[in-house]
Design a protein that fits this description.
The structure holds two protein chains of two kinds.
Chain A lengths: L3 H14 L4 E7 L2 E6 L4 H10 L7 E9 L7 E9 L4 E9 L8 E3 L8 H12 L2 E3 L32 H7 L1
Parallel strand pairs in A: 2-5, 6-7
Antiparallel strand pairs in A: 1-2, 3-4, 4-5
Chain B lengths: L27 E6 L2 E2 L4 E2 L1 E7 L2 E8 L7 H5 L4 H9 L6 H16 L5 H29 L3 H22 L8 E2 L2 E2 L7 H23 L3 H7 L7 H6 L5 H5 L6 H4 L20 H24 L25 H12 L7 E9 L2 E9 L5 E7 L1 H5 L3 H5 L4 H11 L3 H5 L1
Antiparallel strand pairs in B: 1-4, 2-3, 4-5, 6-7, 8-9, 9-10
The chains are: A alpha/beta, B alpha+beta.
Amino acid sequence: MPDGPGLELIRGEIEQDHPGAVLDTSFDRDQPALVVDPAQILAVLAWLRDAPGQGYRFLSSLHAADYLPAEPRFAVHYELLNRDRVERLRVKALLANPTEGLPEIDSCVELFPTAEFQEREAYDFFGIVFRGHPDLTRILLPDDYAGWPQRRDFPIGGEPVAFTYNERNYG
Amino acid sequence: MASGHVPGVKHPYGPLTPGTSDAADTEVMTINIGPHHPATHGVLRLVVDLDGEVVRDLKPVIGYVHTGIEKSCEDKSYWKVIPFVERMDYVSYFFQMEAFCGAVERLIDLEIPPRAKYLRTIFLELNRIHSHLVWLGTTALDLGAISMLWYCFRERDKILDLFEMACGQRMHTRYFQVGGVIEDIPRGFEPKLREFLADMPIRVQQYQALLDRNEVFLSRTKDVGIVSRERLLELGVTGPLLRAAGEPWDLRKTFDYLAYPEMDFKIPVGTVGDGYDRYRVRVAEMVESVRIVEQALDGLPEGPFIADDRKYVLPPRSELSTSMESLIHHFKLVTEGYRVEAGEVYYAIESPRGELGCFVLADGSSKPARVHFRDPSFVNLQAFKDMSVGGYVADMIASLGMLDPILGGVDR
């Protein structure tokens, strides 16, 4: 794993080629993470994959998370792996929930074909739209399903329980 | 292969040579296989474009056994999540437990005692043998070797007996806990395990005697479903599929977890990456797993089998009737559970199917805010199209068997 200073070094090098791309870094529980501007996510992923001395060529996992009530609330996580140096690096793109429509980010299927199913899964459960994905449809849920069930404000069981008796009698 | 084809007479099953079409009026036909089909190893639906008997395009349709486990986990305290995640990939349940417990241990920075590390290693490797036996039995059955199923399930049953002896359950044992394992192995377990370990390599030789030079098996697996190593890596494929293509990548060797750094074992690799290599790699892995279990059993350290941290680990049962403090700890852990400081962890281990990653997001409460599993079957399934397009339908079924997807893990 890149340690704390190593992470800052990577940040500095990315900043030279793509100013403003890295918003923050974190080194929590021995796991390094870069927080990246979602508009420049592809540039950063391509840089980490191809720049000499980096070589994070394997995308282990792509998944989404909902940090409600934090703002911006959504994040797409890219768990990158350098198989030669056996180093993992997490890249996070934080996405705000727009007042209308769904949060959007560029698809990285061109860079990492493995992301195809995983981006569909993130879309299926969080409603995050991956621009440029070849077939962005629901993958595990039925096509006619309404809602984004892994969001934190989506109740377990699908719908809130209405306590009509209590409301009627006790206001 | 064009035997039985009379010139001028259209063959009832279309052209027999992949990539050629002997009639201008050949139509591509889209057919549906599954979701309930014995050859799909679970509830998997395949939409296949066929040109005669040749697969032109293929799309797996999944989600038929999606049960929302990841969402359900968000409503359970950490220790109650363990039985949920076990039921994702129902053939390798110890691996799911280890991925989740390991992730939580990293979140709360809890070191597990050496004996627990060794016990976990023993059970993980037994589970790997068990998983490969289920795979070998069912896949050989697909290819017409019916007796393999009975032989493999005979040995599998011995492993389940061992699980039952130590854990009380044959499947979904909930044996691993955050901090260690729930109980020490019972008396009489070790001789029974040694008996199994002495027996297993002989059994593997018997499987190989049945299959290695079996004419039918060879013609169904040799040069079938080859995907290049580079393409497999692009598609994120890991585990025996990647190793069969010649890439010696195994998280047990590369990352430091449990007792694996102290174990001496080899990583079997293939050369061309066809169905036969995949079979050979998995069979060789069973023998290596036996070696790991033997070493772990020989080197099993004395000492506690679970960490002694009362804020995360249940106090011993015997203390509950004598110590008020233990009773309070027990009550707090069972009712509310323990709180985990906000943070996130991704922890990956080598499951029988590849990299099994667990992402846990903690928000400071006693329930995880997100539990995500990077299931190897789910990611590996993307390579199925590359394996099958351009080959025969029958080879597609053989490739699916060699892919070894567990649909419970794919759909979660």
